[in-house]
Amino acid sequence: MTGDLWWSVPFAGGLAVTLMLAFAGAGLFLRGSVWQALAVGQWAALGGVIAATVALPVVPVAVALAGAVMIVLHRICDRERWPLALFLAGLALVTLFAANLPQANLAAARWAEGQVYFLDRELLRIIGGVAAASLLLAPLLARIWLFAQATPDVGLRSTHRGVFVVLEAMWWVGVLVLGSAALGLPAALAALLLPAWGAASVVRGLHGFLAGSLLLGAMVFLLAWVSALHFDQPFGPVFVLWALVIAAVPRASVSLVRLRRRT
C-alpha cells in the first residue's frame, strides 16, 4: 500500500465484508439463529489464533474449525444452550492460548481489535470472490430464509437437507471468518447482529428488511472508519460502539412514536 490511495484496499475490503455480514445477519434474524453466530465466530477466532501460532494459513484453519462447529450445531436440536456452551469453550481456549504463548497473545489481540487498516490485496481478492458469490446466491438465500421464517417448526430441519442449504452454511461460515479476520471478532458480530436488529424495527417486507440492514451496515462502517482514523483508535471497538448507536436510534424512534400515539 503506497501513495495517497493506501486506504483504498482496506476501505474496499472492509466495506464489502461489512455489507456481507449485514446481509448474513438479516438471514440469522429471520431464522432466529443468532446464538450460532457467537459460537461459530469464536471458533473461527480460535482457528485464526492457532494458525498464527504455528505459522499456518489463517483463513483455511479458521474456516475448518468454524465449519466443524457449524456442522455440530446443525445436528443438535438445542439452539441456545449448545451454541452458548461452544462459545464459552472457544473463548476459554483462546484465553489459555493467549496466556501461555506469546504468538497466540498477539494473534488474539489482532482478532479482538480488528486489522482492517492492514488488510492486504490477497485477503481483498478472497473477499471479492466471496462478495461475487454472495451476489449470485442472494436470491436463493432470501427464499430459504423466508421459508424458514414462515415455517419455523418444520422448516428448519427440512431446509437443512440438500445442496442449497449446504451452500448456505458454507457461505455463512466463509463470511463470518472473513469478517472476523478483517474487522475483528467483536466488530464482525456487531455487523452481523445489530444492523438487522435496527432495521427490523422500521421496515416491513423482506426486501425492505434486507435493504435496511445493508444501509445501516454501510453507515456503521463509514462512521467507524472516519472516527477511528480521526481519533487514532482501534477500529474494532469503535465499530461496535457505532453499531450499537445506529441500531438503537431507529428502535428508540419507533418507541417514541408509539408513546406519543398513546398519550
Assign the structural class, choosing from mainly alpha, mainly beta, alpha/beta, alpha+beta, or little secondary structure.
Answer: mainly alpha
Roughly how many Å apart are the termini?
A: 57 Å
Question: What is the count of helical runs?
Answer: 11
Radius of gyration: 18 Å
Oligomer: single chain
What is the mean pLDDT? 84
Quote the beta fraction: under 5%
**What sequence of helices (H) and strands (E) makes up the elements?**
HHHHHHHHHHH
Record keyword descriptors for this entry.
single chain; 263 residues; mainly alpha; 11 helices; 83% helix; 0% strand; globular
Briefly characterize the structure.
With 263 residues, the chain is mainly alpha-helical. The protein has helices at 8-31, 34-53, 58-74, 81-100, 102-113, 121-150, 155-159, 163-183, 185-199, 206-231, 235-262.
Question: What topology emerges from the helices and strands here?
Answer:
Layout: H1 8-31, H2 34-53, H3 58-74, H4 81-100, H5 102-113, H6 121-150, H7 155-159, H8 163-183, H9 185-199, H10 206-231, H11 235-262
Protein name: ABC-3 protein
Keywords: Membrane, Transmembrane, Transmembrane helix
Transmembrane segments: 6-31, 43-76, 82-102, 123-149, 169-194, 206-227, 239-259
Textual characterization of the structure:
With 263 residues, this protein is mostly helical. The protein has a domain of 181 residues. Helix content is 83%, strand content 0%. It has eleven helices and no strands. The mean pLDDT is 84. This is ABC-3 protein. Keywords: Membrane, Transmembrane, Transmembrane helix.
